[in-house]
Amino acid sequence: MEEREIKDFYFEWQQRLHSLVEGYLYDGEKKLLPTRSIFSEFKNTLERFISNRLEEHEKIILLPGIRGVGKTTLLLQILKIEKLISPADYFLLENLKKIEEIIYIDASFFKLNNISLNDFFNFYQHLNDFIFENLQKKIVLLLDEIHYDENWGLFLKSIFDSTKSHNNILVIATGSSAISLRMNPDLSRRVTIKEVFPLKFTEYLNIKHKIFPAAQLSEELKEIIFNSTKAEGVYKELNNRKSQIEKLSLNISSKIRQDYFETGGFPFTIKISRKTDAIELVKNVINSIIVKDIIPLKTFKTETISKINSLIFLLAGSGKISFEKLQQSLRIPEFRTLDSLMEVLVMSGLLVKVPSLGKSYVPARKTPRFLFISPTLRSAILDNFFSSDQEGTKLEDYFALLYQKDLKNKMSSELAYDISDGGADFILTGKDRKKVIIETGFGKEEVSQVLNTQKKVNGKYGLVFGSRDLTMVEDFTVKIPLEYLMLI
Q: Residue 178's pLDDT band (boundaries 50, 70, 90)?
């Protein structure tokens, strides 16, 4: 494309961007929408970028994540960060001007106009009279839906290689095709991957109901519940915060919690009053994964692709289901085909794989558990119809989200489940390699599952989430009301 055409397009894009930003940053009353916790992480990233403290691999940050979790909103909030920082962000207030420009590009829109990222940024360098190799000013590139550019991996590799001599560029890129972002071979060891997850309950309270738990409460609860040395310490520290949590819980009705499980996992459902409409939009997320992420891989036959919705429904309706039963129900003859399909659904961000206790995963018949990355996904698939046996899977999905977002690689090195009958839902292995045994459920008072699993793993303590009262049982197990878990 001629430079003149790119120039005309660029100025048209700048005009369109204003109305785009308005729609993402403000509500119907022109009030700024709340930010999520990940926005605070990027405030810290910008501070370190300004002060030249980013590591080499942090120059390019990729943001995979299941469709609909708010990646575009996050980029546009970073674009207009000056509107969203408070007096507490004194470093950014004083130094934000050191960033010469923050530019936002939607690669899908550029694709429609036959403009590649490489062509555009060649034009952009010429327009601003610089080249990336010897950039003398700080620039942030926000690249949305980057996977729409066929050569996006090579483009980012080129940016990385050409800017090794300085710290003046920061690239933050999203892709709704989480599979593509994870599979690109050009970016090994050159990027930082920071996944964007569905909403936790505390984020839902913030955005939907303007309820703001104390900023440090979540971190304190995580440390107490999952990183104590023994059950007595968990019980004592939680008991010290009992009045604080009970007071906060007075503003959180059971309906609020139910609404969260059913439709509250995704930011785009927050403003939708009819649950049936919200459910259909969540189902569209799943359909988009199949059509836009899995089919383009050209890995599976049409007959296999046609069975994905049935596979997802079977997983949603079952607590534990074996590969053998899935193969029989779906009539997929090859184990490897089913196994590959499950792995792709994990890579897409839809599912979380939890291996069975004591088994490092190999393509064998011992089926891992596959949980959904948000209970809202399972609720949508089942149209909010849960049998009494299925209700507990909402909490298992929620714990999978907590693990992926807050515990994995931070406080824990592994999550597993006890495959045997009467075993616990989860075994969490800490950084110290010691295990915490976990059971979840609504109105959960029974501790036998925890004790059964303890006979095999010699854990440091057990947790039962869902009890009426905070209680310690036999110096090993702490029964914890659900509100403690939900406020993490």
A: low
**Residue 358 pLDDT class (50, 70, 90 cuts):** low
For the chain, the average pLDDT equals 93
List, by residue range, all CATH 3.40.50.300 domains of the chain: 3-193
H-helix or E-strand containing 395?
helix 392-402
C-beta separation of 201 from 263 below 8 A: no
Which residue reads 């009426």 in tokens? 468
CA gap 51, 320 in Å, rounded: 50
Mean pLDDT in residue range 434-461? 96
Q: Report which residue type is found at 400.
A: A
Q: Is the whole-model pTM more than 0.90?
A: yes
* Cβ-based burial of 385 (10 A; exposed 0-12, middle 13-18, buried ≥19): exposed
* Beta strands across the sheet bearing 412-416: 412-416, 426-430, 435-440, 461-465, 477-480, 471-473
Angle between helices 37-50 and 71-79 (to 10 degrees): 40
3-193: CATH topology: Rossmann fold (3.40.50)
**Short-list 394, 374, 377, CA closest to 386:** 394
CB atoms within 10 A of CB 218: 17
Q: What are the start-end ranges of the E strands in 109-267? A: 138-144, 169-174, 192-193
Sign of CA dihedral 80, 82, 83, 87: positive
